[in-house]
Amino acid sequence: MKKLFKNLFIFIAVFIGIAILFSFTESGSGEAEKISMSTFISQVNEGKIESIVVDGEDLKITLNDEEETKEIVKKEPGATLSEILKNFDVDKEKVAGLDIEIKDNTQKDIFFGLIFPVLLPILLIGGLIFFMMRGVQGANSKAMMFGQSGAKEFGKDEKNKVTFKDVAGVKEAKEELKEVVEFLKQPKKFLDLGARIPRGVLLLGGPGTGKTLMARAVAGEADVPFFHISGSEFVEMFVGVGASRVRDLFKKAKKNAPCIVFIDEIDAVGRRRGAGLGGSHDEREQTLNQILVEMDGFEPHVNVIVIAATNRPDVLDPALLRPGRFDRQVVLDNPDIADREAILKIHSKQKPLSKEVSIRKIAERTPGFSGADLFNLLNEGAILAARQNKKIIDMEDLLEAIEKVMLGPERKSKVFSDHEKKVTAYHEAGHAVVAHFLPNVDPVQKISIISRGRAAGYMLKLPTADKHMHTKSEYLEDMSVLLAGFLTEKEVFGELTTGATSDLRKTTDLAKKLVTSFGMSDNLGPRTFGEKEEMIFLGKEIHEQKDYSEKTAELIDKEVSCFISGAAKKAKEIIIDKRDVLEKVAQTLLKKETLEREEFEEIVGKKIEK
Ligand code: ADP
Ligand code: MG
Ligand code: ZN
Predict the structure, then answer these.
(1) Ligand 1, pocket-test mutation among 167, 170, 209, most atoms within 8 A of CB
(2) Which residues are CB-contacts of 515 (< 8 A; sequence separation ≥ 6)?
(3) pLDDT at site 538
(4) Domains of the chain: which residue ranges?
(5) What is the pLDDT of residues 77-119, one digit of tens each?
(6) Which residue, among 260, 254, 168, has the nearest Cα to 223 in the 3D structure?
(7) Which of 80-84, 272-276, 363-367, 539-543 has the lowest mean pLDDT?
């Protein structure tokens, strides 16, 4: 569309240019003075005229005075000069003495009388149509290209080559994928033994765990071309395009074998078939079918390996996971502490860190961070340092960056009244004190009443180890900690604020999960409630389907409330019991705004863990 406008602009500019040019040729008689017919006649009678040039309707006159003055006079259209002279009764002798030249003006007349008024609009309109057509054709050819995969090929790009060295941690995944690399490099070795080349590898992992990076690393290691397409690109614009894109993508890939086809975010097309309502899923279904057909259609020796990535393996169609398709599944977990250290090391290479920066400490403080979060953290650290015009990045910057990534930017400018500050201080102190005196809760790392993101204040806990499983008592105590802020406000001020809304929501969600997903309710027994099924209806996802009776629903409600009130009771006991400590923490917070672990423990003592 932009191009169309550009063309149009050029066209109009040229047109104006031509018009200006013509107006110049017209004004060649610029200096001539326009005179009336009667003046002309009298000049003829007085014998002042040297010569006359008849130029269409104009008579261009040159006088026989010193300066050879030029004059111009318009005659009536159609009338000839001799007719005019006769009509005005000019002396025959005088007329005979005139030097009259008649310019052949028919061509110019044709131009100005015909071509200009008739042909030009036609030209203009024609040109317009031409350019429009060209624009449409451009769009059309894009639409045609749509059927082609549009896959971005990362050929053997030596400069930006990613290899396993650039991927930190995820050892098991790397082991698995090394095999794939060998298949790509030396297929014969495997084929000779009758082994079947794996068709598809599915990378599973949360957002930012390095799936895309890993796929590129495999291509880099094997030194083969890499076709990259995202699942969402398949289902972009026209119905029926997805399938033909798949066909084209695989055709290209086969031509370039050995190579890797990488389908990112395959869940966009690979959702369980038949679960959706409405139009869009038909398109998805066709695309998915085509992927399956293509993968089945590879001859045994064709060395194309399809790598797909998703963070929603639960919604994938089982047909995708069948042997011969994506039968190899590689899980990329969020990094543990050692992996976090390794990832931070890789990404801090191009960044000037000060000597006192301890990568290990940062890794310790970032449980639950994905690879992308860590990358982001280093970047935020660099930005913070740059904003203070530093040449190197300090530990301080990185610690600040951790919190920024976790909770959003500090909002020092947000003005809180003294009373609001006081409420926040007690609220956070409540969280912290309850967390401190419950044995299964992680130690308190930091408390702050500086607003961050949407929170007025925050309390950070620090897991001492990466945890993969949680016990019921941990969950119950976590609920107590979550409720502590709310309960402290109630206890201290006798009134509630809206500041505890998200705490309450989190508590309720957790309690629901304990009952319906984890089977942790004794009264309801070891089963799950509610079938998770993906449905898309009018663009909205409907997640849960009830698979229990109304009576059970009531029981679930009761159990959830029971868990919550139990947790609240425990929290309240601590708040009342440790009121003096709480008071001290809150007052210190009001003074200092943030308390680090050491400062907090000075007030409350060392944490007794179980
Ligand atoms: P995903 O595709 O799983 O969402 P990406 O592969 O796009 O995640 O990862 C985003 C960024 O995070 C990468 O470009 C890389 O900088 C960083 N990253 C993630 N995991 C790792 C890792 N294991 N080692 C090094 N960098 C990583
Ligand atoms: Mg990705
Ligand atoms: Zn809170």
Answers:
(1) 209
(2) 521, 524, 529, 556, 559, 560, 563
(3) 46
(4) 2-107, 152-331, 337-407, 418-604
(5) 777 777 777 787 777 777 777 778 777 766 666 666 766 777 7
(6) 260
(7) 539-543
Atom of ligand 1 nearest to the CA of 342: 24
Q: How far is CA 389 from the centre of its chain?
A: 30
Neighbour order of strands in the sheet with 594-596? 458-461, 444-448, 594-596
Architecture of domain 337-407 in this structure:
Orthogonal Bundle (1.10)
Q: How many residues does the chain have?
A: 610
For residue 461, the cross-strand partners are 444
Tokens representing 1 are 């569309």
CATH code for the part of the protein at 2-107 = 3.30.720.210
Instruction: Give the CATH number of domain 418-604.
Output: 1.20.58.760
Q: What is the DSSP letter of 271?
A: B
Which is catalytic among the residues 71, 428, 477, 559? 428
Cβ(212) – ligand 1 distance below 6 Å: yes
The predicted pLDDT at position 77 comes to: 76
Query: Which CATH code of 3.30.450.40, 3.90.1150.10, 3.40.50.720, 3.40.50.300 fits the domain covering 152-331?
Result: 3.40.50.300
β-pair type (304-310, 259-264): parallel
Identical fold, 337-407 and 418-604: no
CB-ligand 1 contact for 362 (6 Å cutoff)? no
Reply yes or no on whether the pLDDT at 193 is more than 70: yes
Quick: pLDDT tens for 565-589. 999 999 999 999 999 999 999 999 9
- Catalytic: 428? yes
Residues with CB under 5 A from ligand 3 (ion): 485, 503
Q: 13-17, 22-26, 50-54, 326-330: which range is least confident on average?
A: 22-26
State which ligand 1 atom lies nearest to the alpha carbon of 264. Answer: 2
Q: Which residues surround ligand 2, an ion (CB under 5 A)?
A: 212
d(CA 467, CA 475): 13
Q: Environment class of residue 259 by beta-carbon count within 10 Å: exposed (0-12), middle (13-18) or buried (19+)?
A: buried
DSSP states along 5-67: HHHHHHHHHHHHHHHHHHHHHHGGGTTPEE--HHHHHHHHHTT-EEEEEEETTEEEEEESSTT
C-alpha angle 575/577/583, rounded to 5°?
Answer: 60
Judged by DSSP in three states, 597 sits in helix
Proximal ligand: closest to the CA of 371: 1
Question: How would residue 539 be classed by pLDDT, with cut points 50, 70 and 90?
Answer: very low
Instruction: Give, using CA atoms, the residue closest to atom 5 of ligand 1.
Output: 210
Distance 1 CA to ligand 1 centre (A): 36
Higher-scoring residue by pLDDT: 245, 158: 245
